[in-house]
Amino acid sequence: MANYHFSNGCSFSAKKKNNSCHQWLASYYGIKQDQTINLGKGGRGNDRIVQTTMQFFYNNPERMKDTTVSIGWTTPYRWDFILKTKQEGAYVIRGANKDFDWQWQTFHLAKADPPEPGRFFLQYGIEERGMDLELTHAVKLYTQILTLQYFFKAHNIPYVMYHALTNDCPVDNVNGIDRPQLKNLRDQIDQKHFFHFDSSESVQEKIKMQLANRSSPEHRYSHNEDYCQSHFEYVAKHGLGKAPNDAHPNPAGHERWGKLLYKFTQANGLFPN
């Protein structure tokens, strides 16, 4: 049985006054709140998730033996950078977070009118250099997922992953061009450890048809009745946002998603009881 639970992600994962979904997941395994480590940060991206997760375990190697992990991936449209020093200027200071003595800044490239320097990056990369942003984001996301997947497996750390925000990355076709190498990369992701990985309607329907015939109520509940590809989609579908203009989960939105994660880890034997 694990003594601690570690989690990381964006604002959907960040520690709240009321338990986050990660804390609910840990509680079902008898792990108390003061035995949970939550490094979730609002507005940050997946690069920070990867680096701070690995750095935590390198800094605390004893936790590799008695800790379970849950990771909520955010949108790949957030690009993280490490700053050389604390910089002056409202944009940098306002968005900066400090983890392990490194100060992070994030460009939000999905915004219609991103602030500087994200706007400059998009103009230079796409208009002047011909960058394929959609393909770049897909490769980045799948590589980030695989980096932590192989890290956890190498150190025998029990883990589960899911999409906090919806993954709309393409599978094997980008802008009308077949990209079989992208599918090959994507197929390396261990979906036994990834709660509701796929987003395409055909894959969702296939999963529903397969699992509807199984006798396990955990499978029917977690995959069929409430199938949503991300925590964001689940909150929107069930009206569990904090407010009409705030899509972040309310306490019930955290508790119910945590229960789904628990059922998934139980069904797949991911965490020690």
Describe this structure in words.
By secondary structure, this protein is of the alpha/beta class. The chain has one domain. 42% of the residues lie in helices and 18% in strands. It contains ten helices and twelve strands. It has helices at 21-28, 46-59, 90-95, 118-128, 133-154, 180-186, 201-212, 217-225, 231-237, 251-268; strands at residues 4-8, 36-38, 67-73, 78-83, 97-99, 102-108, 159-163, 173-174, 177-178, 194-195, 241-243, 246-249. It has a five-stranded parallel beta sheet, sandwiched between helices. A three-stranded antiparallel beta sheet has the order 4-6-5, covered by helices on one side. α1 (21-28) packs across α10 (251-268), α2 runs parallel beside α5 (133-154) and α7 (201-212) packs antiparallel against α8 (217-225). Mean pLDDT is 79; it is low at 88-99, 199-204 and 213-225.
